[in-house]
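Students often ask why we bother encoding 3D structure as a string. The short answer is that it lets us treat folding as translation between two languages. Here is a chain of 488 residues written in the first language.
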Amino acid sequence: MNQRPKPSFYKQYAKPQSQTKQQNTPQDAVKRGDVKNSSVKMSHEKNSTVKTGSRLNLRAQLIRLLSQVQQGRSLSEIQEKYFELVDEKDRGLMHELSFGVLRHWYALKSISLPMLNKPLSDPQLEVAIYLGLYQLFYTRIADHAAISETVEAVKQLGFESASGVINAILRRATREREQLYIELEQAHGLPSWLYKRLNKDWAEQLPELAQSLRQPAPLFLRVNHRQIGRDAYLKQLQLAGIEASASHISEVSIRLEQSVSIPALPSYDKGWFSVQDEHAQLCVSLLPNLNSKVVVDACAAPGGKTAHLLEKYRPQQLIALDNVESRLQRVHDNLNRLQLASSEHAEQVDVVCADATTWQISESSDATQADCIIIDAPCTAIGVLRRHPDIRLLRQSTDIAQTTALQAEILENMWQQLKVGGQMLYITCSILKAENEVQMQNFFAQHADAKHVEIQADWGIAQQYGRQLLPQQGSGDGFYYCLIEKVA
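And here it is in the second language, the structure alphabet:
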């Protein structure tokens, strides 16, 4: 058996280092509209007519793509490869269908399982069913097109003998659409381990939270106020015919009310804005005045916080730290586009490739300790599940122990780099208490020189330590913030 790939946070932040006899035919099942009573078993043996590469239709490419995610591959790692195999005009649909199936994966699974008498013997057939059902229930694609294209994809992938059963399931779904849709909407749509964890952490909020996690996330911009004010940029968007509104949480945030091409937005190349979730933008507003201070942005890539700090303050030195060189290139790229890498800022910023669990400030600065340290800690990223729906399949309950241990290592090392009187801001994009409030409870229990600084705000949910934001429909992602001061 192949070993499951390491979770993505590990890669980014860890230390460098046969057919059976058929009693009924698929066609019989189609006529009865009863796939469950069909004893047809799907064979994983493919026939000799399997198509490859660009010869496959869009649905076949999607099945292959989603099967890779099912096996533990990150969608962001592989989607470009598959996008290149389809016509440019179909890439928008490919994006919609891949994200949609992943968002509703477990809900689609819950309605399809009762239709099957026996488990499917190849994961690609499971994916084909979910893809077909998603098109029937969540898109405007005509039923006949969704079914025929999906069944054809199954044939192209070499599962000719299974195509009849796939066809039967999808046709049955159209006949039972009303009841199945009710069941879909009532499903929590989460893997069982995550549902149990969220029920323990957020029982009161869980029904709304589970449904929110199945919705697309809004798109937010952070206006670079060194270039233009928010009201002025809103007018630029209005002139361009783009619907947008000001955020009530962040003073530099704009919510886009329609789908757009980001590079096509006004003055993208001039650095007038960045794409950043509105809850992520709260980071800089929670910090003290950092002018002429020594600041460390630990786990900095892709550079959103680093850039936001430079847009608001003129620190004596800002050290942007991450342990993956390729990710740090994105920090450079973002600073260049935002015009924050000019000579005016260049002496203030040091982009450093190093491990946050062992790095010492003396390696990158004349200062012996920092005035302020921001730790956007590696986590399970459950709070950004709407933007990265593959997390629904990629994360496992065992990942939590790995992330919390890594977080604790980073906290311990970075605490030693902070001067007395300095402040540390601990952040995650998680909604699991083990990575947030419980992590902070353990930290304060072990550090008598740590003082909790209460965040006075009307957003989020106050915890014993810090504040928690949950993903909400029409609003930002799940984030946790805790501000800590070092005392003598």
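Translate back mentally: The chain has three domains: 18-186, 219-275, 282-486. Keep this in mind for the problem set.
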